[in-house]
Amino acid sequence: MTSADTLFERIIAGEIPSDVVHEDETTFAFRDINPQARVHVLVVPRKRYRNVAELTEADPQLLADVLRSCRRVAEIEGIAESGYRVVFNTNAESGQTVFHVHAHVLGGEQLGLFGRFG
Ligand code: 5GP
């Protein structure tokens, strides 16, 4: 067992179990442990960047890989046509809690509005 340092690196390495939906050479997709919609899948690049801003600057091709993987997840989950939302929480006030960039893929039912707390 390796000792990768962040939660998502440990999930990707299989050290922490997860419900894997899709994986490829550069990305890894698994169900959120606390789903906010019927379908709630996290898509992460295997290589760690802190947030989507860092990823965009450092490796736009990898950002495209993440978005392609989101589309693939939507197809696998059968929500590509009915509709889905892709969210990148970025830094503290957005609610980002895990600082390994990840896209939330949400769908499978009518989604509500989002924005201000309360
Ligand atoms: P953030 O708040 O950083 O945008 O999203 C982090 C997400 O990771 C949350 O939606 C949270 O439920 C999810 N999460 C936290 N710990 C785990 C875990 O151990 N396993 C899985 N599958 N999801 C997790």
Automatic annotation (TrEMBL):
Cited Pfam families: HIT
Alphabetized PROSITE patterns for the sequence: HIT_2
Active site, per annotation: 102 (tele-amp-histidine intermediate)
Database matches in Gene3D superfamilies: HIT-like (3.30.428.10)
Start and end residues of each HIT domain: 7-118
InterPro entries noted in UniProt: Histidine_triad_HIT, HIT-like, HIT-like_sf
Motif (Histidine triad motif): 100-104
Coiled-coil residue windows: none
Molecular function (Gene Ontology), one example: catalytic activity
Protein name in UniProt: Histidine triad nucleotide-binding protein
Annotated organism of origin: Amycolatopsis panacis
